[in-house]
Amino acid sequence: MNKIVLLENIHPNARAHLASFGLTNVVQIPAALAGAELLAALSDADAVGIRSRTHMTAEVLSALPNLKTIGCFCIGTNQVNLAEAAMHGVPVFNAPYSNTRSVAELVIAQAILLLRRIPEKNARAHRGVWDKNAQGAFEVRNKVIGIIGYGNIGAQVGILAESVGMRVVYFDPENKLPLGNAMPVFSLQALLEQADIVTLHVPGLRSTENIMNAERIAQMKPSAVLLNASRGNVVDIDALDRALRDKKLAGAAIDVFPVEPSSEKEPFVSPLLDLDNVILTPHIGGSTEEAQENIGLEVADKLARFLLAGTTKSSVNFPEVAHQDKGALSRILHVHRNEPGVIARMNQQFAQFGLNIVAQQLQTRGALGYAVTDVDGLIPQPLIDVLQKDPATIRCRLI
Ligand code: NAI
Fold it and tell me: Can 260 be counted among the known catalytic residues?
């Protein structure tokens, strides 16, 4: 039976979910491991689950020929040498959508709090000041929320915003299906000029660096608020600081920063610290118990589907083959170099052994090809030996 090693205190629901697929040979180790300890723990593992502190380097991958897949129970995958894993025939999975709802909920809460000027009222109340003034405090109903980046999180924010009565406009360079009553706008300026709440949900790319610079911030209404729970480098923090101090903006909520402390021990430094109309949070947009639970389920699911059916949908480094129920007696997973003639040679071998192909899915990604083939019969060992000897074969597995 497939052996799965889960490191770094992965949520217990991962183990339960694996068991629901019949994958019960699971070893849980609370710590992150490295060096000889890591190799010893994984020497006979078919799959490993890690978070951010276990590093799956080229050396580690080369020393683990039995390892078939890696699950990163988190969003980031920098801790894995993805290219090297792919060339060992090892797909890597993560959990990109587990915390989408958590971020979206925080954004809606921040929008409501900022429009009601709660951060300032709260700060004054803590200082013993009883400020009941309603001036500058607004409902969010009928206000325009401008979403920059209408991807997974941006679209989710739009749905939630609409449910509390906001009007939704969004700007995205890609043509995105508007959900609910959301309306696309075709320039950032058009969005900034009409929005009461501007919220950023773009990826951290060179093209999105400082997209909210002094010039863009000046295009916002002075009564508007700016929210950033995407990446720290998409807002020019000094320009934002100036706009807030000059009363060119009513408030801001910032969850991500150009420089973030690596732990609680390091101080958090920002020019915005003394501004009462700014909500500052330590990159916790996606940090909820539910997100952790979702991560456990999402990644365990992907590991199980790969181990049991060869599915690689949503892998971060591998050709993506969608789930398909096994349509015949045997399924063979074949990872190969993406060269002409590989599939023809493989299929010829099936024919020579008298095996009829019932279904075949092939996907390629860069230098890698991945074929999942169902055949109507038992695959004999000599056939596997022949396929393994093919000069283009990287890995060949029967399930
Ligand atoms: P996504 O990839 O689904 O969506 C990003 C969208 O931005 C895409 O639709 C893309 O076309 C669009 N986009 C790209 N360049 C753009 C530009 N110049 N202007 C406008 N739109 C542009 O990503 P997802 O999952 O929605 O994540 C969004 C951001 O949120 C990412 O930066 C991610 O790192 C961050 N994030 C932050 C968390 C937190 O704890 N604060 C937690 C999870 C994600």
Answer: yes
